[in-house]
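Re-running the complex after MR caught last week's input typo. The corrected sequence lines follow. Everything else is unchanged.
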Amino acid sequence: MNDLIIGMAGSGGDGIVSAGESLIGAVAQEGYYGMLTKSFGPQIRGGESSCRLRVATLPVLNPGGALDVAVVLDWDDFLRFGSELPVTADTVIIFEPKSGVDRTTLPLNGLWPKVMCGVPMEDMAMKTAGAQQAKNSVVLGLLAGWLGLSPDSLLAGLRKKFARKGDEILQGNERAFAAGLEHARRTPLGRNLRLDRPTAPAKKRIIADGNELCARGAIAAGCTFFGGYPITPATEIMQHLQRDIWEHGGVVLQAEDEIAGVGAALGASFAGKKAMTATSGPGLSLKTEMLGLASVTELPLVCVDVQRGGPSTGMPTKCEQADLFAAVFSAHGDTVRPVLAPSSVADTFSLTVEAFNLAEQYQTPVILLSDQELAQRKEIIAPVDASRVRVVNRLEPNAAELENYTRFRFTPSGISPLSHPGLKGGNYLAAGIEHDEHGAPTANGEVHGQMNNKRLVKFQPLRRRHDLFVLEGDPDSKLGIIAWGSVAGLALEALRTVRAEGLDARLLIPKLLYPIAEEVFAEFFAPLSRCIVFEQSHQGQLHRLIRMWVDVPKQFESYARSGANPITPEDIVTQIRTLSRSGTRKSRPVGADLLNPI
Amino acid sequence: MISTDDTSGGTPAAGPAPTPKDFRSPLKPIWCPGCGDYGVLNALYRALAAIGRPPHEIAFVSGIGCSSRIPGYTTAYGFNTVHGRALPIAQGIKLANPDLLVLAAGGDGDGFSIGGGHVPHAIRRNPDLTYIVMDNQVYGLTKGQVSPTSPRGTRARSAVYGSMEGPVNPLLYTLAYGAGFVAQGIPGDMDGLAAMIEEGIRYPGFAFINVQSPCVSFGDPENQVKVQRTRMRKLAAEGHDPSNRLRAMELAQDYGQELFTGVFYRNPNPPPTQGSQIKALQDERRALKAAATAA
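Corrected-run output:
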């Protein structure tokens, strides 16, 4: 096999996520590509936890759909993840017989996988290590055996992991691992799961998730201030930065609330530093007023929103793409702010740099819309190179401009030089209240109109940013698909699959979501007779947003689904096949998805 | 005393010393004639001239309200932000550039109602900045509603039958949270107020100055600038030792009854400021990185 998806679930203490981390570390060592997605119940400790690992000889674009292998330590825990761990008749099921289920009472709604393998993992752990907690080492041994992975790289990982726990625990886990390996060698599964060797020799690669790459991108862009507040699933951005930022002369402030976090960041930007805040949906709601202040005072600011299920507290540990409207429209008044979305884990690094560059160039808040999936899944990727990024800095006033400094001077581009405290002659009043060119408060309607125009016209060049879009597929195809964020990787794989079948489509992945790049969309839509937007939100928010701004093809449809019901590549493939065969699909009336939830 | 790691008053610039006039901006205040805030502004000009830092090295942050217009009436870098958020923004500025002299100001509604949640955290972080609250016991900009410092029973447009809440006590509250410098002044005592602001700026850490700054339009007519001058009791004249925190808290309990002016508390052993701790951490991490690179 050259592409394998493993899903594992158990109770919190079973160490199933830790087993996934060991596994991705080992396959990276051996030169495979891989992607590890973790999923938890809402409990703080205990409760159910799961992970899915996709291993392949070529770069992995998404976590994939149905599992090839399911490791079930406990059926109740496993089933709680529902469509996050989909099983088919072809899935190899490795389960703990102790969890009260045998072959005849499988709780899979009438589904009977061909390969079912009960392994007494708990007994094996007790026998070899004297502790149930060694179950996950048994699992690693089993998988090493059945997948044909080198025991050495897994054992090296175990040694590292247990180094600080003492010899006794380490040796117990080594014995548990060996028992699992031996069991796999003696027990043929009835289906070959052995992975092909990686095609290219192992190059130096890293394992990282989107939150870590966001933090590293920020530092690469020159960020020296972070203000934020803990919130799932964005907290790791703050944690990474508070480890690394000090040596760059930077500061992390864990503020008393979301508003203070963004406020401190805005203050730092006023003082001349590149500043960022990061949050998830509820925090974005709280920060909104401050984003408006950043718009009116024309101060650079990066605000990351790692989307989770909403509204309100919603589903903090689940992925959704439903904050797009909030990112675009929240904050009162006639403001526009750029909204960017990375389309892969690796992309998060460069898009974070881009977010800073846009913020500095256009003196504006920028929202980076990541999502739980991209933020928290670990991927084996090429190392990021901070020395090669292009960094943009804000336009500062020159000596002549400081002679008679006019902070909000009207210019053709809408951008006026920005000073900062400490710069002699650059003194000005930044105010949330409407102001004239000099910064003096005003309630004059004419000036207000001119200032609104200044703050909008500066974004005109973004309409032509083709480089913030990925185009794939056949330029002559009449069928277009659009996907963004973590759904983009699913669409890319679906496109590969249908092209192999001789079908084709044109795929657009927008990384700039707002302002809508009218030129780019108009060019994309021109040859199309139909187009579908795939996204993980109930209303299909991008689908609706595009309609506001651009003339769309006659058949412009939405394939949208609420969070925690992941769209799979197969879903997208099925849509493309259906459209290609029938030539047309019955168009759903606008709003139908509101009345008839998918 | 001027600290070296954080700037506090900082080092006066070379060249001619600034005068109060150098801090006066061309903008005409929107305040009503007779408003206490004029006195605060003039005291501030004098305090800043005494400190001697040029206007471009000063960042002056405020929230929303009549008094929050004050940064625009100075020549410093001003940031008139959103309601209640002067303190977080001021902290961000100070953290980003510790060399700046940072002032925050606003009214009692801005500081103790909508922005009340930020006060304890600013105090416990101990950034080296000075926070001036113009406390008039009323919302003036919205034309006369009860504020967090209005006495119980206050009749106002938002409480025509009298308010049912007791006031917060800004002095006791900041002392209890551990502020290292707490003072109260009145615009009628210009010399005392200017000296107090200067002292607050020079204190190496978070300094809080509550100014009983009467609202001439919606405030208590029996408690205006001239009346205050007769009611005021100077703490120095009462023999108060400002290093005695418990005595300061006892005196502060009379907020709303007695009009004490002067320094309630000045911590004789100021704890490390946020800025000095951050600088130490940055230096340590840089040294480790340099050592790792060299190795």
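None of the earlier attempt is carried over here. The CA atoms of residues 188 and 227 of chain B lie 9 Å apart. Strands of chain B lie at 58-62, 77-80, 101-107, 130-135, 138-139, 145-146, 181-185, 207-212, 233-234, 260-266.
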